[in-house]
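Appendix B. One record, verbatim.
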Amino acid sequence: MDVLERIGEQVRNNPVVIYMKGTPQFPQCGFSMRAAQALQQCEVPFAYVNVLQDPEIFEHLPRFADWPTFPQIYIDGELVGGCDITLELHASGELKTMMEQAAAKAETGDA
């Protein structure tokens, strides 16, 4: 499977996914750490991909949604953005709402 197809499948099959350096438990950069913490504080399950363990994704993810940096957060199949946007959404309360809606949609199978 082509790497862009693999990324597309991950984004479609997970209501919320963060592409980050490291893991939520052991982030490998400050931006990834702050974005993962914001997601964790919403108390909605999310998937993650450690781009440092997958050189193909690390190299090609910036082409997937034309976003050059990490982390990248996708909710309901759409790129939300990186660290700064995620933190702004979290501060306003919108992030939790978006994550809850995406998780509920995935549970009911509404695609």
